């Protein structure tokens, strides 16, 4: 091929590309009015936290499809634009920038983790776009940032549920066993901070790694401190190793765990050692067992049956964070015609919204909107959960 | 005393695991001058294969053990053939980077095959934990230590008494001289890969019942095993065993008497100290002038 024909081909290709671009631009302008409203999602769909991100992504799509099936918001359809952060804060920031500049989303739901959420908060605050985080860490909404909300129950309520239960049982001396990661650190702050309010003394503090194979040395230290109960704060599989080691050492103390292991997987992993473990959990895990007068019962059973029918897998409380996020957003979007500032102030006005994680009542000083009743205490018995009073 | 014994039991259990992983590193290094940073992933694949065989396919423990070790060893051979042998300029740094790449690849592959959840399997023999002077010992821990020592003894025998073992040893000492006397050095390299990854599988299998194997367990175990090998003396069989047990016991004592928050730090600090005073490890089998 000579140089001349090469040049010609390049010219033709360039012209074609330009024509295609022009065509796209003109159609886009024509459809501006009926174009769906875009809502962004950033979840840890893959990577170590995929157990959170994967159900969150699916639940967000489920919630949006349900809203669209009912005719959308003020006649406009919703569209989900979801990116995978892989649990990496810097990738989450890139995702957020892309959602804001390229996709022009009206609000963002997610990210799934506390570190990723904290990383994207400044980006959203600068752009003045509402963010509804699905992460548990209470640093996200404390102190209050005008544009940032969250739907997951925070550690504050989990710890106060555990301590309230201990207070009823007359337990005064506890030992804490903390996983060495952000989840564990955040739990430890609450466990140490709230102990005094319930007349409880933390007599021993030990750490374990996310991938530790054996924690008997730490538990031996705990036994030496002679506590009346042990609280283990972590996510699978660490606490299952701890539970097995407690059984191995023949420690007969009540073992409390965090909501981080509130899944059937934990019972599988810990086996016999899970028997008798107490933990706070969102109500979804025990939806069937709730009394009929619980306002959340109907909402929960509805979500569980639709989710399981559509996806063929067990619904978890994690998916509920994104599901609540979209529903809260939809409620706030009504009549705003996409004005972000109005959406933000409408979110703050929401009262008594019954969701999966609890009943949300936001205000100018509370951007999590949940009360301690978002948690119930459960005990593991015969390989399943039972409600405890 | 009771506490000390409990720390010690915790230490030898972890130590035996580190030892078996360290042996895998050492054996490969000794014959090929190569540090396989994908070794931890072979441990992970061993553990997860064992779980699948015993839990899903209901194969009894002993045949499942053998199938897993041979399966992973063959995977190691394939790895050598496809990723290592094909390199046109086999410089140490290039090969090491290839093993790092392989480790990421294997982790991703395992995530696709076994999913992201942790798995579980029962111990080899169901027994109540033994009570020794007030300290509790799991029967699985006894299995772990026994198997680790047996593996080391078998390898010792292999290197000292069999022709193939001696041939591998010869290759390790001087590849060209070995080639001159008719030892197929390429075959020996291949064999070293098989043995090393097989060792990794053994480590994975023995810990499968006490940890919850998942696709991401390999890197930390690999790192600890590498530390143990460096500590004892990279390239030395008994050095690796010693390094493994030492690392495990010191970690447990560190948790017991210093702080559990500093568990990993204690181990790595120790490694730095040893390398500062004895760069070749406690039992240095090879002169440190490789790179």
Quick synopsis:
Chain A is of the alpha/beta class. In chain A, strand 11 (353-354) and strand 12 form a beta hairpin.
Strand order of the largest sheet of chain B: 1-2
What is the assembly state of the chains in this entry?
Answer: heterodimer
Q: Low-confidence segments of chain B, ≥5 residues, pLDDT <50?
A: none
Beta-strand portion of chain A reads 15-25%
Radius of gyration of chain B: 19 Å
Q: Give Rg of chain A in angstroms.
A: 24 Å
How many distinct beta strands of chain B? 2
Number of domains of chain A: 2
Could you please describe the fold and organization of this structure?
The complex is a heterodimer of chains A (389) and B (291). Chain A has 389 residues and is an alpha/beta fold. Chain A has two domains: 37-154 and 296-371, Response regulator (Rossmann fold), CATH 3.40.50.2300; 156-287 and 375-387, 3-Layer(aba) Sandwich (Rossmann fold). Chain A is built from twelve helices and 14 strands. In chain A, a hairpin with a 2-residue loop joins β13 (375-381) and β14 (384-387). In chain A, α3 (89-101) runs parallel beside α4 (114-127) and α11 crosses α12 (340-349). The longest helix of chain A has 28 residues, at 3-30. Chain A is globular and about 85 Å long. The termini of chain A are far apart. In chain A, 50% of the residues are buried. By secondary structure, chain B is mostly helical. Chain B has one domain. Chain B has helices at 2-32, 39-56, 61-84, 92-114, 139-161, 163-173, 175-180, 185-207, 218-232, 237-257, 263-277; strands at 130-132, 135-137. Chain B has a two-stranded antiparallel sheet with strand order 1-2. In chain B, β1 and β2 form a beta hairpin. In chain B, α1 (2-32) packs antiparallel against α8 (185-207), α2 (39-56) runs parallel beside α4 and α9 packs across α10. Chain B is globular and about 60 Å long. Chain B starts with a helix and ends in a 14-residue tail after the last helix.
List the keywords:
heterodimer, A: 389 residues, alpha/beta, Rossmann fold, 14 strands, B: 291 residues, mainly alpha, two-stranded antiparallel sheet
């Amino acid at each position: 091929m000579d140089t001349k024909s090469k040049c010609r081909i390049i010219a033709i290709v360039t012209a074609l590309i330009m024509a295609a671009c022009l065509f796209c631009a003109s159609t886009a302008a024509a459809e501006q009015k009926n174009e769906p409203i875009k809502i962004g999602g950033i979840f840890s769909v893959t990577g170590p936290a995929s157990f959170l991100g994967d159900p969150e992504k699916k639940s967000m799509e489920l919630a949006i499809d349900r809203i669209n099936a009912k005719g959308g918001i003020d006649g406009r359809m919703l569209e989900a634009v979801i990116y995978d952060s892989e649990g990496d804060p810097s990738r989450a920031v890139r995702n957020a920038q892309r959602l804001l500049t390229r996709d022009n989303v009206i609000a963002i739901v997610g990210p799934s983790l506390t570190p990723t959420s904290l990383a994207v908060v400044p980006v959203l605050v600068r752009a003045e776009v509402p963010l509804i985080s699905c992460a548990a860490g209470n640093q996200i909404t404390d102190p209050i940032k005008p544009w940032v909300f969250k739907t997951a129950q925070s550690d504050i309520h989990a710890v106060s549920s555990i301590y309230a239960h201990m207070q009823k049982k007359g337990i005064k001396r506890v030992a804490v066993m903390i996983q060495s990661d952000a989840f564990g650190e955040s739990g430890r702050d609450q466990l140490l901070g709230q102990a005094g309010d319930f007349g409880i003394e933390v007599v021993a503090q030990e750490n374990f790694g996310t991938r530790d194979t054996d924690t008997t040395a730490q538990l031996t230290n705990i036994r030496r401190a002679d506590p009346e109960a042990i609280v283990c704060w972590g996510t699978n599989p660490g606490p299952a190793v701890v539970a097995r080691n407690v059984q191995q050492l023949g420690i007969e103390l009540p073992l409390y765990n965090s909501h981080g292991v509130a899944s059937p997987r934990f019972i599988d992993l810990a086996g016999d050692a899970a028997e008798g473990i107490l933990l706070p959990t969102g109500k979804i895990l025990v939806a069937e067992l709730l009394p009929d007068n619980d306002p959340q019962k109907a909402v929960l059973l509805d979500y569980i049956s639709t989710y399981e029918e559509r996806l063929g897998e067990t619904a978890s409380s994690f998916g509920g964070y994104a599901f609540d996020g979209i529903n809260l957003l939809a409620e706030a979007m009504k009549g705003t015609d996409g004005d972000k500032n109005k959406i933000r102030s409408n979110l703050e006005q929401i009262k008594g919204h019954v969701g999966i994680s609890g009943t949300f009542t936001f205000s100018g000083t509370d951007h999590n909107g949940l009360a301690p009743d978002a948690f119930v205490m459960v005990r593991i018995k015969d390989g399943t959960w039972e409600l405890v009073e | 005393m009771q506490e000390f014994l409990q720390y010690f039991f915790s230490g030898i259990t972890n130590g035996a695991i580190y030892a078996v992983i360290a042996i895998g590193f050492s054996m490969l290094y000794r014959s090929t001058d190569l540090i396989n940073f994908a070794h931890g992933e072979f441990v992970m694949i061993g553990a997860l294969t064992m779980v699948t065989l015993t839990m899903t396919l209901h194969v009894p423990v002993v045949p499942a053990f053998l199938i897993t070790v041979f399966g992973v060893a063959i995977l190691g051979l394939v790895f050598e053939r496809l990723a290592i042998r094909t390199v046109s300029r086999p410089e140490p740094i290039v090969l090491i980077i290839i093993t790092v790449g392989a480790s990421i690849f294997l982790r991703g592959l395992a995530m696709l095959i076994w999913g992201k959840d942790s798995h579980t399997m029962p111990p080899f023999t169901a027994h109540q934990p033994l009570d020794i002077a007030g300290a509790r010992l799991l029967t699985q821990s006894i299995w772990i230590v026994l198997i680790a020592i047996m593996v080391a003894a078998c390898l010792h025998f292999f290197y000292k008494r069999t022709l193939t073992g001696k041939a591998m040893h010869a290759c390790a000492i001087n590849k060209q001289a070995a080639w001159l006397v008719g030892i197929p050095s390429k075959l020996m390299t291949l064999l070293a890969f098989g043995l090393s990854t097989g060792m990794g599988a053994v480590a994975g299998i023995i810990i499968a019942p006490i940890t919850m194997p998942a696709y991401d367990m390999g890197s930390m175990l690999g790192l600890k095993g590498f530390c143990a090998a460096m500590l004892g003396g990279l390239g030395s069989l008994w050095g690796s065993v010693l390094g493994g047990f030492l690392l495990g016991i010191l970690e447990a004592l560190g948790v017991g008497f210093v702080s559990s928050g500093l568990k990993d730090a204690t181990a790595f600090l120790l490694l730095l100290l040893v390398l500062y005073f004895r760069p070749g490890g406690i039992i240095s089998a090879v002169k440190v002038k490789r790179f």
